[in-house]
User: Which sequence fits this backbone?
């Protein structure tokens, strides 16, 4: 995918080049799905949101301002779509009594499933912004400046949200530590 | 040399590798010598290690291909989905919602983001966090306020007539120079 610079791709998409959209899609499909999954912690929902994000991207590409990095615009749409989705889920059932307190043996299969649940539960307990900063920093490897741009907050606020997330996870994950 | 208080203030920066080389050396030597700080450091490292095990199972290539094709079909509506119920509302309202989501994330639109930015824009956020000056409650309050504002905006749009929605979107577009 050498030479597939986002600015050029977006320019070509705006000119109606469908192949350019295909390349952009292929480049970002994994990070977008991963961000959505990690935010919402549910495969069916992550699929639905990912689909919606790319529909929005295709339909709103003319609104993208090339002065900002394309992926910060894309990730902002992804995160906002996750947040709206979560809000609209009236039937959202909160997690039951915390299982994070149990102590878990990481070698046992049964405990691996519990461990996964503890991680799901811990991440879902984080406020949206802290979870977003953590996802973009830890899993997607972006700088705090880029995260700030994607979240529409300052670099310092992005860092603060990420640090708060780590400190909270230290407590939420104590069954595994 | 650094002491325990300085070490704990810089621990997250150290883990994130955002401290300079000299400071990193100072922290490393302190961690070697100090059991308490070493324990604190280990706990944070374990959080990172647990997160590293959190794999995402990706959907199949076929699924991605179907999404790619769907995304390029502007008129296609998705079948039964609670989430897409809003797609049935007039197009202007949907457009306004999308616009609002973008707009509401821009610092200019929320007065609260000015003081919040000043408060949170600091080169030593980690130390403030550890001192409890930036705590979860404060961040939750700010986030809550913003969410409330966004929610109110969205509700407001649902309640508008089609004509009002059009005017509203037009005004917003002018005000925030969207798409320019
Ligand atoms: Zn110490």
Assistant:
């Amino acid at each position: 995918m050498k030479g597939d610079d986002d600015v050029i791709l977006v320019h070509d998409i705006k000119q109606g080049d469908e192949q350019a959209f295909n390349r952009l899609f292929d480049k970002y499909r994994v990070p977008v799905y991963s961000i959505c999954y990690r935010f919402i912690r549910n495969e069916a929902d992550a699929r639905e949101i990912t689909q919606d994000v790319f529909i929005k991207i295709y339909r709103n590409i003319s609104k993208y301002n090339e002065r900002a990095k394309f992926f910060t615009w894309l990730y902002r749409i992804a995160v906002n779509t996750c947040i709206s989705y979560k809000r609209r889920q009236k039937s959202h059932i909160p997690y039951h009594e915390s299982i994070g307190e149990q102590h878990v043996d990481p070698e046992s299969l049964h405990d691996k499933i519990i461990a996964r649940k503890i991680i799901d539960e811990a991440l879902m307990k984080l406020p949206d912004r802290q979870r977003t900063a953590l996802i973009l920093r830890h899993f997607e490897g972006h700088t705090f400046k880029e995260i700030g741009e994607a979240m529409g907050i300052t670099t310092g606020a992005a860092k603060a949200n990420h640090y708060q997330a780590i400190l909270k996870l230290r407590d939420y994950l104590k069954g595994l530590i | 040399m650094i002491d325990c208080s300085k070490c704990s203030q810089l621990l997250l920066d150290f883990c994130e590798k955002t401290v300079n080389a000299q400071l990193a050396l100072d922290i490393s030597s302190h961690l070697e010598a100090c059991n308490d700080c070493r324990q604190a450091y280990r706990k944070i490292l374990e959080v990172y290690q647990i997160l590293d095990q959190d794999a995402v199972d990706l959907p199949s290539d076929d699924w991605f291909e179907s999404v790619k094709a769907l995304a390029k079909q502007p008129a296609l509506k998705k079948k039964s989905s609670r989430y897409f119920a809003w797609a049935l509302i007039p197009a202007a309202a949907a457009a306004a919602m999308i616009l609002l989501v973008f707009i509401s994330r821009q610092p200019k639109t929320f007065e609260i983001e000015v003081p919040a930015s000043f408060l949170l824009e600091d080169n030593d956020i980690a130390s403030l966090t550890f001192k409890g000056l930036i705590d979860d409650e404060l961040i939750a309050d700010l986030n809550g306020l913003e969410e409330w504002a966004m929610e109110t905006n969205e509700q407001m749009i649902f309640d508008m007539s089609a004509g009002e929605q059009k005017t509203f979107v037009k005004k917003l577009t002018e005000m925030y120079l969207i798409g320019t």
Summary: Residues 90-97 of chain A have pLDDT under 50 and may be disordered. The helical segments of chain A are 6-14, 18-40, 43-60, 70-88, 109-125, 128-139, 144-151, 155-172. The pocket of zinc ion is lined by residues B 4, 7, 30, 34, 36-37 (CB under 6 Å). Residues 106-177 of chain A form a domain with the Arc Repressor Mutant, subunit A fold (CATH 1.10.10.10).
